[in-house]
From TrEMBL:
GO biological process, one term: recombinational repair
One cellular component (GO) term of this entry: cytosol
The organism of origin for this protein: Paenibacillus roseus
Family listed: Belongs to the RecA family. RadA subfamily.
Pfam families: AAA_25, ChlI, Zn_ribbon_LapB
Record protein name field: DNA repair protein RadA
Stretches assigned to the RecA family profile domain: 67-216
UniProt short sequence motif RadA KNRFG motif, positions renumbered to this chain: 253-257
SUPFAM superfamilies according to UniProt: P-loop containing nucleoside triphosphate hydrolases, Ribosomal protein S5 domain 2-like
Domain of life: Bacteria
Residues binding ATP: G96, D97, P98, G99, I100, G101, K102, S103
Functional description taken from the UniProt entry: Plays a role in repairing double-strand DNA breaks, probably involving stabilizing or processing branched DNA or blocked replication forks. DNA-dependent ATPase involved in processing of recombination intermediates, plays a role in repairing DNA breaks. Stimulates the branch migration of RecA-mediated strand transfer reactions, allowing the 3' invading strand to extend heteroduplex DNA faster. Binds ssDNA in the presence of ADP but not other nucleotides, has ATPase activity that is stimulated by ssDNA and various branched DNA structures, but inhibited by SSB. Does not have RecA's homology-searching function.
MF terms in GO: ATP binding; ATP-dependent DNA damage sensor activity; damaged DNA binding; hydrolase activity; zinc ion binding
Length: 455
């Protein structure tokens, strides 16, 4: 007979305790210990399952190298984020808010791979097969090698995998799948951990590329133990506002590629459409001839993206002025305001300051500092910037403008979109020749940049 015990698991790190604790002893998080039922079963045959393959250690120079083979989808933005395509045998975790479009993206990806002759098994634990067919009709994702199954029992899912032997396996979602031998509700810490470990073994042993859909918490993190993100090979976040049509696909972990790339999609009635030129998207509603608005050339991985920065500086009625930023680290914003006060003589101690990146993009590179400084100064002086200027550069604490990487690519992107002038660090002009159709203004201090942009 199986003996049932009660234990408490942390939803952040998976740490276990025989009694409830307010603070997790593993990660230090508060109020994350939840009750779980632990079933102790007989260990007959356990030694056989733990023997392993008896492989011997090898010198690393004797191990066969080479690049991982990839399966390219017909979605170029997804290929970019994954690093070139789906790697066979990889385990991918896709997270996002409810209704953001995770199932739509994976169904379109499944259809793109099945159209190439690959076998895809799409397992839905939240929708019936008829609901999945209705979505496929709307997306035009119908193929003979795309199999759909509505099941949450892990043992029955194993039988379907053995019968079909797919090249791609999609589990939508991991929180609905349960292992019958684990005496916990689906979606609990124990169930999510055991089911993910089982799919990881399937992916590695059989070479099946597996995609897991994960729910997210109200803070935006993937629900379940933090161990879940450590077990998989790639973690993708599908971001965006439900009331807006644009979606961002971002990799926060990728063992087979870079984590700096982003993919941009637009939600249409017939599914997700790739946005090939995101700069035109982010600048489509930009107002001209207003104060506080600048265009910055930022790098998202290997892709230059032009984004609008908006600043608003207004007199405050409170003893302590407000500093709010969206899309930019607020600590960086406070540093730029301090530089403007100390080096440029702007009295901002009685001014509220707001900084926003239009389009919902998050910019975390230092090259946006100079554009943020110009936006804040433009709004404070109420002097509009030039509508066809692009600004980028890193700002130091002494008011100097430092060089940034890949300046040539940023300038070429600005020229392609019809901008007439670029204000950039003077030291970034070395080693390459600017295009003939655009004016380059090299600056070494913030005061020079403000004189060029606001004159």
């Amino acid at each position: 007979m199986a003996k049932i015990k009660i234990k408490f698991c942390c939803t952040e790190c998976g740490s276990e305790s025989p009694k409830w604790l307010g603070k997790c002893p593993g990660c230090g998080s508060w109020n994350t210990m939840v009750e779980e039922k632990e079933t102790t079963v007989r260990t007959q045959g356990l030694k056989t399952s733990l023997k392993g393959t008896k492989e011997k250690p090898l010198p690393i120079i004797n191990i066969e190298g080479g690049q991982e083979p990839r399966i390219e989808t017909r979605l170029g933005e997804l290929n970019r984020v994954l690093g070139g395509g789906v790697v066979p045998g990889s385990l991918i975790l896709v997270g996002g808010d409810p209704g953001i479009g995770k199932s739509t993206l994976l169904l379109q990806t499944s259809h793109a791979l099945s159209a190439q002759g690959l076998t895809v098994l799409y397992i839905s634990g939240e929708e019936s097969v008829r609901q999945t067919r209705l979505r496929a009709d709307r997306l035009g994702a119908l193929s003979e090698t795309l199999y759909v199954l509505c099941e949450t029992n892990l043992e029955l899912i194993d039988e379907a995998i053995e019968a079909i032997s797919p090249d791609l396996l999609v589990i939508d979602s991991i929180q609905t799948v349960y292992e019958p031998s684990v005496q916990s509700a689906p979606g609990s810490v124990a169930q999510v951990r055991e089911c993910t470990a089982h799919f990881m073994r399937i992916a590695k042993v059989k070479g099946i590329a597996t995609v897991l859909v994960g729910h997210v918490t109200k803070e935006g993190a993937i629900a379940g133990p933090r161990l879940l993100e450590h077990m998989v090979d790639c973690v993708l976040y599908f971001e965006g506002e439900r009331h807006h049509s644009y979606r961002l696909l971002r990799a926060v972990k990728n063992r087979f590629g870079s984590t700096n790339e982003i993919g941009i999609f637009e939600m249409m009635e017939s599914g997700l459409r790739e946005v090939v030129n995101p700069s035109e998207l982010f600048l489509s509603e930009r107002p001209l001839g207003v104060s506080g608005s600048t265009v910055v050339a930022s790098m998202e991985g290997t892709r230059p993206v032009l984004v609008e920065l908006q600043a608003l500086v207004a007199t405050t009625n409170f003893p302590s002025p407000r500093r709010m930023s969206t899309g930019i680290d607020h600590h960086r914003m406070a540093l730029i305001i301090a530089v403007l006060e100390k080096r440029m003589g702007m009295f901002l101690q009685n001014q509220d300051a707001y900084l926003n990146v239009a389009g919902g993009v998050k910019l975390d590179e230092p090259a946006v500092d100079l554009a943020a400084a110009v936006s804040l100064a433009s709004s404070f002086r109420d002097v509009p910037t030039k509508p066809y200027d692009v600004i980028f550069g890193e700002v130091g604490l002494t008011g100097e403008v430092r060089a940034v990487s890949r300046a040539e690519q940023r300038v070429k992107e600005a020229e392609k979109l019809g901008f007439k002038r670029v204000i950039m660090p003077e030291n970034s002009l070395k080693g390459w020749r600017p295009p003939a159709g655009i004016e380059i203004v090299g600056v070494s201090t913030v005061s020079e940049a403000l004189a060029a942009a606001l004159s």
